[in-house]
Amino acid sequence: MLRYSLKRLMSLGLSLLAASAVIFLAIEVVPGDPASYMLGINAQPDTISALREELGLNVSALSRYVTWVTGMLTGDFGTSYTYRTPVVDMIGDRIMISLPLAIYALTLSTLIAFPAGILAASKRGSVTDVSIMGATQLGVAIPNFWFAMLLVVVFSINLRWFSAGGFPGWDEGLFVGLKALTLPAIALALPQASILARVMRSALIDTMNEDFIRTARAKGLTRRQAMWRHALRNAMIPVLTIIGLQFSFLMAGAIIIENVFFLPGLGRLVFQSISQRDLIVVESVVMLLVFAVVLVTFLVDIAYAAVDPRLRGRS
Amino acid sequence: MKYLNIKLAMASALAITAGMANAETKDITIGMQLEPPHLDPTGAAAGAIDSVVYANIFEGLTRFDATGAILPALAESWTISDDGLVYTFSLHSGVMFHDGTSMDSEDVKFSLDRARAEDSTNAQKALFEGIDTVEALDPTTVRVTLSAPNGAFLFNMAWGDAVIVASESIDDAKTHPVGTGPFTFTNWVQGDSITISKNADYWGTPARLDGATFKFISDPTAAYAAVMAEDVDAFPNFPAPENLPQFEADSRFNVLVGSTEGETILSTNNKMPPFDNVKVREALAHAIDRQAVIDGAMFGLGTPIGTHFAPHHPDYVDLTGQSNYDPELAKSLLAEAGYPDGFETTLKLPPPPYARRGGEIIAAQLREVGINVEISNLEWAQWLEQVFRGYDFGLTIVSHTEPMDIGIYARPEYYFQYDSAAFQQLMEDLNDATDPDARSVILKSAQRMIADDYVNGYLFQLANPTVANANIVGLWLNAPTQANDLTAVYWND
User: Fold this and answer.
1) Which residues in B lie closer than 8 A to residue A282 (C-beta atoms)?
2) Min CA distance, A144 vs chain B (Å)?
3) Of the candidates A82, A149, A262, which has its C-beta nearest B216's C-beta?
4) Is B123 within 8 Å of A43 when comparing Cβ atoms?
5) SS3 for A60?
6) Scanning every residue of chain B, which has its alpha carbon at the shortest distance from the alpha carbon of A151?
7) pTM
8) How far is A72 from A78, CA to CA, in rounded Å?
9) What are B22-60's pLDDT values in tens digits?
């Protein structure tokens, strides 16, 4: 298990290094100058060059790359060109929304998907199964931004239970914060739950057809007992993979939902920074998201090994 | 009896909550589409900075009022020497910055010298170019000497880029602005909102609100939802014009449609063939149906313009008739210019809806007269690089939002590259003229000259639609500069 983990850890480090180079290069070739953007159309050339100097843009790309990477290793992500605040603080503020939102949505989605998937698999072919599958079909098909707007119309504009968006900050209390994240979390969770429920169901059905389940049944276990004791654990591998992917998606890909609910999350930060050519922020956030994806993949790999001892031996 | 009691109880409960609501509505939440990058108006061009700080946190020597007129601000009064070169300002005494330091002539000298310094990062450095010296004669007297007369000097000093800042606090102004205004900066939740509160020690007429929150909502649909759910009390420059009729029909809201300083034009590369031929530019002007663009792209909001000047300005000349929609005339002008079969060119569009939606309509109109345009959609940063600095475009659509910016036509290197000695002379005359009547005559002939030369396609003046709670009084109708001046805003109980 230790060797397996170490090997995974090394591949994690290499992935990050490669990613940093790719990100930096990709962003370097994007046309557009942050100083020109900030100073607008009436600025004079000497003003722009004074600002470029102030922002540290007048040095070579290689030395900026080295400064950036070495800075990140010590936790210093540099200073935003436009906001002039440390990137670390900006990301920190945004993570305090994106991470809880992702966890909230994933919790909701798991809470819905597991029972639904298990129920559908155990009553395969029944009316319950068909209606659950029908509902998930719909859940996958509905775009989440549309669903989000529907939630706003019903719960914010008509019922006035929730505000239409925004985030008051965690200083206002846990309940207030969670309340502000509820509609976005539901909007994000619905399609995720539908996908997860379908995966759960088919993984469970596949496992139930395996030889070892037949053996367990032959030993005298009921179908139900065999499922809970043996099949469920084995069906977890594909489910975990999906959960891992979904978590990464929720961290980075909630941008549309963040826009609908005007939440100051990571996705919107990236979006804003790209249009402002605040390249250092884009680089750092993208790097962080890569790190999150790689880390989640790593954790999922470790979790595979925990649920499936065969994987440990194979490494 | 029981029923009556319940009704009475309910009525009194309602009365209590209503009373509480009145007592609490001393704050206001203003919706804004763009978040400012930082809060130092002297260090970036972003209009969103002024939308928060102008007149609320920072003040200059002079200021704009809601109609665009110039009023005294930190300068109580001034005298101008007969040759128009020396401005002597008397400052209000006893003015304090929010950090408790006093505002005096040294701060004015510091602010103006900083803005025009070699390493200045002021986005409107040109406003200060004519200043030769700034002297602090005594704590409340400042003498500014210009190197040449400049009739627009007091106007220039009213810009958000010319506010008075203190040497003690300017280094932190980007995240913690310290000015002299009726509101002080309280808090900034980045990505979400900025809060300001009433300055109890304000030198002038105190604000009537206790505070204000600027909430950033970029998505038009989200903006609609936020106003509908009454999460925001007012949304100036409302981004979803298609929803305005809905707000108009709702008694909770007030819809104000004012004007801005944004001349929206089909900018034409005057140096690039075939646009270097005035006949071609004239043909272009007649090929465009402005009203169709306004209706199609702006849901009917916007005033047609025939020159580069704001229609609400007293000196505006309506020249729309000179470039009326006449596709047949456009075709014959093209034939005269040697392009009977039209030509192909590029139309590069920045992100705002007026450009993207307007661009599609204009492309279709130009196609009718044989001009085939290839549309490309650019981000602002790309637009600045390719169009604005690179001159790599045939046509583009952009709204010039700076107030009184007809002077850009006197800059031959400016991106549309209009180079006319006669116009440049006119602008020099304008700078020399301090007499209002003389200035008015010059401004009118300047408008005619660029219309006669068909420098650009003049489309419409950008509107400023505001949706606000019906009980709010005192918001600006027009936007003579980008600002949400809250000094006179209050709730009507």
Assistant:
1) none
2) 14
3) A262
4) yes
5) coil
6) B225
7) 0.83
8) 8
9) 444 589 999 999 888 889 999 888 788 999 999 999 999
Contact call for B225 and A50, based on CB within 8 A: no
CA-based max dimension of chain A:
85
Number of Cβ within 10 Å of residue B127's Cβ equals 23
Tell me the C-alpha distance between B231 and B235, whole Å. Answer: 11
Query: Which residues face B468 on adjacent strands?
Result: B234, B254
| CB B442, CB B152: distance < 8 Å | no
Distance of CA B178 to the CA centre of its chain: 23
Q: What are phi and psi of B132, to 5 degrees?
A: -95, -55
Residue B236, pLDDT above cutoff 90 = yes
Residue B409 to residue A85: CA distance in whole angstroms:
38
Searching chain B, which residue's CA lies closest to the CA of residue A34?
A: B381
What letter does residue A79 receive in the DSSP assignment? B
B20/chain A closest Cα distance in angstroms: 19
Following DSSP, what letter does each residue of A133-161 receive, concatenated?
HHHHHHHHHS-HHHHHHHHIIIIIIIS-S
According to DSSP, the residues that pair with B216 across neighbouring strands are B32
Contact list in B for residue A36 (CB cut-off 8 A) is 381, 384-385, 389
- Selected for mutation to probe chain B from A28, A29, A39, A170 (highest B CB count within 10 Å) is A39
CA distance B293 to B299: 9
B175 is written with which tokens? 């995240």
Least Cα distance to B237 among B482, B489, B486 occurs for B482
Interface test with A, best of B384, B386, B397, B405 (most A CBs within 10 A): B384
Contact B74, B180 (CB under 8 A): yes
- Mean pLDDT value across residues B1-21: 42
- When pLDDT is averaged across residues A302-306 and rounded to a whole number, the result is 80
Amino acid letter, A34: P
End-to-end C-alpha distance for chain B, whole angstroms? 34
Determine the 3-state secondary structure of B378 from DSSP: coil
Under an 8 A CB cutoff, do A40 and B225 touch?
no
Instruction: List, in order, residues 6 or more apart from A273 with CB less than 8 Å away.
Output: A80, A82, A279, A281, A282, A285
Name the pLDDT band for A44 (thresholds 50, 70, 90).
confident
Contact B381/A34, CB-based, under 8 Å? Answer: yes
Interface touch A47/B38, C-beta < 8 Å: no
Quick one: which H or E segment has residue B90? strand B86-91
Task: Please give the mean pLDDT across all residues of chain B.
Answer: 90
Closest Cα partner for A312 from A46, A64, A4? A4
d(CA B208, CA B486): 9
Residues of B in contact with A27 (CB under 8 A): none
**Position with higher pLDDT, A262 vs A44:** A262
pLDDT digits (tens, 9 = 90+) for A186-240: 999 999 999 999 999 999 988 888 888 888 888 888 888 888 888 888 888 888 8
- Least CB–CB distance from A157: residue in B229, B400, B402: B229
Tell me, what's the pLDDT at B9?
Answer: 43
